[in-house]
Amino acid sequence: MTEFTPYASLFGGSLIGLSAVLLMLFRGRIAGMTGILSGVLPPHVTDWQWRAAFLIGAVTSPLLYVLIFRTNIEFSVPVSNAALIIGGVLVGIGVTYGNGCPSGHGVCGIARLSQRSIVATLTFMLAAFVTVFVLRHVMGG
């Protein structure tokens, strides 16, 4: 069952949007996570320091939330490790051919009214809808 969390989702989405705006304001860069990550992997780019800081913030922020609000973030991964690896490879291929990821296209590209990003985001979303439908209703998962 998928839990409906409108307030937490609105707050989280607002923070994502704020981080994208601040990154554009102070660094002039798009907040696309795969582009940021690829810049810290060898051979890394010359401006890898801000990228590493951004990624560290993205990873440690949930830990800070847990400490401040004294709560647990419950999650589960209902698929096997093999399925995660296959999914990761497929996403990597899609990111390569799509010249960006959902964060870069969906958050930053749509905000800039980029037609390419709008089409890419619609494609991501359609693929996600079809995948969930097939897995839940056709395959019974």
Précis, in short:
72% of the residues lie in helices and 0% in strands.
What's the count of strands? Answer: 0
Radius of gyration: 17 Å
Strand content: under 5%
Class by alpha and beta content: mainly alpha
The sequence of SSEs as H and E is HHHHHH
> What is the first-to-last residue Cα distance?
11 Å
SS element count, helices: 6
- Global geometry: globular
Largest sheet: none
The pLDDT mean sits at: 89
Indicate the low-confidence ranges by residue numbers: none
Percentage of residues assigned to helices? over 70%
Give me some keywords for this one.
141 residues, 6 helices, mainly alpha
List the helices and strands and how they pair.
Layout: H1 6-27, H2 33-38, H3 48-69, H4 81-97, H5 102-111, H6 115-138
Question: Can you describe this structure?
Answer:
The protein has 141 residues and is mostly helical. It is 72% helix and 0% strand. It has helices at 6-27, 33-38, 48-69, 81-97, 102-111, 115-138. α5 (102-111) crosses α6. The model has no long low-confidence stretch (mean pLDDT 89).
